[in-house]
Design brief:
single chain; Thrombin, subunit H; 4 domains; 597 residues; six-stranded antiparallel β-barrel
Length: 597
């Protein structure tokens, strides 16, 4: 009788914690095996999906425990996988998180693999107490963001000592749907350095019953980074489920801490066996909840409604033909700039309207809650390098997003992004060869014609003409500088090498997000020829404001002394400027002297 009551008590505990699989799935004991009770030689098993939705069991044997492997007081259980399938495939990318049972008790999550080209399938297991441990409490975030997210240019393996027996996290497949091989080649190497394996796959739209879907140990689930006409998702295995809380992976995704991104159930099309790196080929389904935490020993999520994502509309135009794409991406300071670069590059280059050797004109708008829209416009000519012609477009968009997300003032709430890329035949670029004034002298208040000789790429030279106005109050007998240049040089002359908070600039940058947006929107365009008149009048640049004709008394106080905010003094002021749109990037600089009679 007492044994019967004991079974009833255990069954009730199982229902309360909800760790077991759904009906039809493998059901296991809810008892947990602490790592300090694990001994070499113990027998066990684990669950994962090799194909479809079917959770399959495979055996394993404990080889030992490695104390303090992940960090102080964070041990790893070393096991050898056994059975026909795992001995054939080895440890598979996407297998991380597979629940491991030792002598019938839940002991941890499969999370690490040992070496490459190994003869035995040896893996590391994150102890279950570390998987289920609540993530550290996060204080209310301050109104500042982390530094700009930079992916390493070389894979991690190239920066470590060479070895064939490294115990490292099992790769997390990054499933690309709607992406071609060219895009994956451009970005897969960088992503792999973070333990992610780029792999082709499919995706399906959200279904009405997705919000009510359930997960069980051994199921495949993952994180949604991009969804829509293009999608990027990761996938790993569920370790345990407690009510509406889901524990998966057994190791971090990108170790992002507290995070909000959609969680989706996944289906394994097949498991690709490889001596180098076996991986699961995955189709990702609709969103079934929210990934809430990404920490050292587990990724955790909550079943239910997914979080809001950033909607992006991309239109590619070639003559009278156009192609429109719509997708959504996660809103995260470290991920969004990279994802917008990847999706922009793929959307521009991987469609039937695109061709190399054509000039690309980018326009767009980023809508932020509570702020004026951020404007995007630039033109990119093809080059002789092996870099795809569409890559500068993607990097330009990434740069703007990086500046917005790494500002020191507030977290930007991006509501919508619209991008438009128009293609023009040929390589439209221009070099400033020479320039001359209509006359070498002029009177105050007079308008002056300036002619510029431009050399197009592989074309006949052409002359462009524009007009600048001599200031009315300029002193007679003075000498002015007429600057004929591209956008970058004109910005340097007028802003003292300050590009609105770009790292390394002379001034400290804007004092708020509104000022940063204003500076971005005022930036000159690279497809225009600029002509400006510099007068010998000191100008003060204070944050995003240009203050000409500042009294000398004020200049003497500030010049050469520490000042509050981002203050600098320029020896010459840009009195006025004019520009000519040329339809292609312009480069060059010429300075002319103008005598005032």
């Amino acid at each position: 009788m007492s044994q019967y009551l004991r079974r009833i008590t255990i069954y009730g505990a199982l229902l309360f914690l909800g760790i077991f699989a759904c009906p039809g799935k493998a059901q296991q004991s809810n008892d947990l095996l602490p790592v300090d009770q694990v001994r070499a030689g113990m027998q066990g098993y684990a669950y994962t999906v090799f194909s479809g939705d079917q959770v399959e069991k495979f055996d394993l044997e404990v080889l030992g425990v490695m104390p303090n492997f992940l960090g102080p007081k964070q041990s790893i259980i070393l096991v050898e996988l056994k059975g026909p399938k795992v001995e054939h495939t080895g440890v598979v990318a996407g297998m991380s998180g597979s629940p491991v049972y030792i002598e019938g008790k839940l002991a941890g999550a499969l999370s690490l693999k040992l070496g490459i080209f190994t003869k035995e399938a040896i893996a590391g297991v994150t102890p279950i107490e570390d998987v289920l441990r609540p993530p550290p409490a996060q204080p209310n975030p301050p109104p500042t963001l982390a530094q700009e997210f930079q992916l390493p240019k070389q894979p991690t393996a190239q920066n470590t000592l060479p070895t064939g027996s490294t115990l490292e996290p099992i790769e997390t497949p990054l499933v690309f749907s709607g992406f071609q091989a060219t895009t994956m080649q451009q970005f897969a190497g960088q992503l792999q350095s973070y333990g992610l394996v780029a792999t082709p796959g499919g995706s399906s739209p959200d279904q009405k019953d997705d919000a009510h879907a359930r997960l069980a140990p051994g199921d495949m689930a993952g994180m949604v980074l991009v969804r829509g006409d293009m999608s990027v998702n990761s996938a790993c295995t569920v370790t345990a489920v407690q009510g509406d809380r889901v524990f998966l992976c057994g190791h971090p995704f990108l170790n992002l801490g507290d995070i909000q991104m959609p969680m989706a159930k996944s289906q394994v099309v097949t498991t690709l066996s490889s001596s180098l790196a076996s991986t699961k080929i995955v189709n990702v389904g609709g969103s079934i909840g929210t990934i809430t935490s990404d920490h050292l020993t587990a990724v955790t999520g909550k079943l239910g409604a997914p979080p809001q994502m950033i909607p992006v509309d991309l239109t590619f135009v070639n003559g009278t033909n156009e192609k429109k794409l719509h997708f959504e991406m996660v809103n995260h300071a470290k991920l969004t700039p990279l994802l917008v670069a990847m999706t922009t590059f793929n959307g521009v280059t991987q469609n039937s309207l695109y061709g190399e050797g054509r000039t690309l004109h980018l326009t767009g708008e980023i809508q932020l809650k509570g702020h004026v829209p951020v404007k995007l416009e630039n033109t990119f000519a093809p080059s002789d390098s092996l870099l795809p012609d569409g890559m500068p477009v993607a990097l330009s968009v990434q740069n703007v997003f990086g500046r917005l997300f790494t500002n020191n003032f507030e977290i930007p709430d991006v509501q919508h992004v619209s991008l438009r890329v128009e293609t023009m035949p040929g390589r439209n670029s221009y070099t400033i060869e020479s320039a001359w004034l209509e006359t070498g002298e002029a009177a105050p208040g007079e308008s002056l014609k300036v002619r510029v000789l431009l050399q197009p790429y592989r074309g006949a030279p052409r002359v462009e003409e524009t007009t600048v106005h001599v200031p009315d109050q300029i002193a007679r007998g003075s000498t002015l500088h007429v600057l004929v240049s591209d956008a970058e040089w004109m910005s340097r002359a007028s802003r003292g090498f300050n590009f609105g908070g770009v790292p390394g600039s002379a001034a400290a940058g804007p004092a708020g997000l509104d000022q940063l947006i204003a500076l971005i929107n005022r930036e000159r365009h690279n497809d225009r020829l600029y002509v400006g008149i510099l007068v010998p009048a000191p100008m003060m640049v204070w944050d995003d404001k240009e203050l000409p004709n500042v009294p000398l008394s004020a200049i003497s106080v500030i010049d050469g002394r520490p000042a509050p905010g981002s203050v600098q003094v320029l020896r010459e002021s840009l009195a006025n400027e004019s520009s000519v749109e040329l339809g292609g990037p312009v480069s060059g600089l010429i300075s002319l002297n103008l005598q005032i009679r």
